[in-house]
Design goal:
Layout lengths: L5 H10 L3 E5 L3 H14 L3 E6 H7 L2 H14 L6 E8 L1 H10 L3 E4 L6 H16 L4 E6 L4 E3 L2 E3 L6 H8 L5 E4 L17 H10 L4 E3 L7 H10 L1 E6 L1 H16 L11 H22 L7
Parallel strand pairs: 1-2, 1-10, 2-3, 3-4, 4-5, 5-8, 8-9, 9-10
Antiparallel strand pairs: 6-7
Bound molecules: glyceraldehyde-3-phosphate and zinc ion.
The site of zinc ion (ZN) has 6 residues, from loops.
Length: about 290
Amino acid sequence: PFVNGTELFAAARKGHYAIGAFNTNNLEWTRAILKGAQELNVPVLIQTSMGAAKYMGGYKLCKALIELEAEAMNITVPVVIHLDHGNYEAAKEAIAAGYNSVMFDGHDLPFEENLAKTKEIVALAHAKGISVEAEVGSIGGEEDGVIGEGELASVEEAKTIADTGVDYLAAGIGNIHGQYPDNWKGLHFDRLQEIADAVAQPLVLHGGSGIPQEQVEKAISMGIAKLNINTECQMAFAKATREYIEAGKDQQGKGYDPRKLLAPGTQAITDTFKEICGWMGTKSVK
Ligand code: G3H
Ligand code: ZN
């Protein structure tokens, strides 16, 4: 079921729907996401941050884990194995490990360097049929050590980076990683529209957790085709695990079987996945 993301996301932008890009951390998360995708019969992108890949034991291991788990689960829907917010070295490593897709996140570099390195990664990746995501402007907040100022993407820079031939483009449009503060001003739709008019590629909305559904739907109608979700699943996992233990369902602390302890949280990730895919209109596969 493994494919790169180029055609999948292009079809999503054209069809005005989005495909979920969900972060994985381990075996249970991988299984939970694959299960949700298979049950809904929708394509899915599973991504590892640099931190998650390090935690799990490297890019080769992540790729093998996702592939073997999908095989064991008889997964038939399209699955894209993707590197999330990779620096230059990480993007090259994930390409060498055979990921289907990589994000080169050069937001913290001077623009010319971001441009030059994006070009290089595009050439390396495309030679192996691997898709590339790049970033302009930045995503506010922090994800797994990657910190952004939330700088609004410039239309000109978005167009210049898109012209390198990247397959999808992440732009800072007021979105933030992690939880949104109460005084958050919302997505910058005017800028999204300008970028969508200037760039033909599918656009990526990072920091998908906690954005009100109406805003996500509007963003999708304007050209967002990849919706990145991490925190929402983390919170669902933590909540279900805590409730299970606090309700004494672990036999008042006497039940220590890890497979039982991890089960409610794992199911909560699948439920979250299915709920979010439901409202972003992801099209089922035939
Ligand atoms: O790259 C991953 C996403 O942008 C996740 O953001 O944790 O706020 O959902 P989130
Ligand atoms: Zn992100």
